[in-house]
Amino acid sequence: MTLLDQTLFEAMTVTGEREEPPGIVASESAYPPNITFFAPRDPKLRAVHETAILGDPHLGTPSGDTEPVTHLIREAKASFPDKLFAKRIFIMGDTFDVITTGVGPSDEFMGVPIEDIPLEAYEAEMKRMQLTEPQRDFMRVLRDEMLAGAEIIHFNDNHGGGCWDKFIGSTYMGIRVVQDAVWQTKSGKKYFMTHGNKYDPPNSLINMLCCKVYNALLLLDTKLNQLAAWMYLQRVYYAQFFKEKFKKGIGSFFSHYRENALAEGENLGCSAVIMGHTHCMVFSEDYINPAAMQACPIHVVFEYKDGTIGI
User: Fold this and answer.
1) pLDDT digits 0-9 by tens, 138-166
2) Which residues partner with 153 through β-bridges?
3) E-assigned strands of 110-255?
4) CA neighbours within 13 Å on the CB side: how many for 229?
5) Whole-angstrom Cα distance, residue 161 to residue 98?
6) What is the C-alpha separation between 103 and 84, in angstroms, rounded?
7) 0.85 exceeded by the pTM?
8) Which is nearest to 300 in space by CA: 132, 34, 73, 146?
9) Which long-range contacts link 15-19 to residues 24+ away (Cβ below 8 Å)?
10) In this structure, is the dihedral angle defined by the CA atoms of residues 214, 215, 218 and 223, taken in order, positive or negative?
11) Are 229 and 218 spatial neighbours (Cβ–Cβ below 8 Å)?
């Protein structure tokens, strides 16, 4: 993947409203309270990428595979040591898999600036949250980016077990926590951003069975890929294969996520949607889902110099 040098655009983070001409920031307090507005960031910040968007990491689970992204960030920093990897990093929810580990975030770190959190306390909290060593390494890289000026955003989700509700509008370990967002790129295009679990069909037997099979295959993939790494063999992605086939076989089950999110975004003046949750990679003009950072192919979505979006 080519690392592009960036020139950047004026920005602020406010709460704002409907579609404006390119380069015009929406007015403050124009969106509902649950919507955070993100405009392009300060042009004085030097970065390799304008924005990076990551799929669900599921930190704390054996299948949470952060190493490819950690390597990508370190590779960029090695080539451009005086620049941020990205001025803003969106993580589309399920960052910490609280419902799996049973361990939630500590209130001690709510609203505390990252520069006021000693490395020892940061490391201790990540260990308490049951992150694996590669996952803690990923969090160290994010910490370094935040200390250098990057903004990192986590979306409220379902695998947090409701523990993120009280953090909305504040931060955890320097990471900003939001419910939903409207993001304006440098080109002026606006995306509605949400984790996506709000669109789950209620009490869906199909959804429950799909999740059980998918999670079982994720565990299998994790074990097989550990063996593959040891034997220098190609990785396997049975869970992702199942999800993609299931999606094609029952297209209507997944299409409502896109349709409902687009409808909500349209009411907010957005022409496109970015979400997580489904773990199904989609990249189109009006709908983007970077899937998940688990035992499946890892995708990172970027905003480039001219405000266009790529993967």
Assistant:
1) 999 999 999 999 999 999 999 898 999 99
2) 90, 176
3) 151-155, 171-172, 175-178, 180-184, 190-194
4) 8
5) 6
6) 31
7) no
8) 73
9) 16/182, 17/268, 17/269, 18/268, 18/269, 19/190, 19/269, 19/270, 19/271
10) negative
11) no
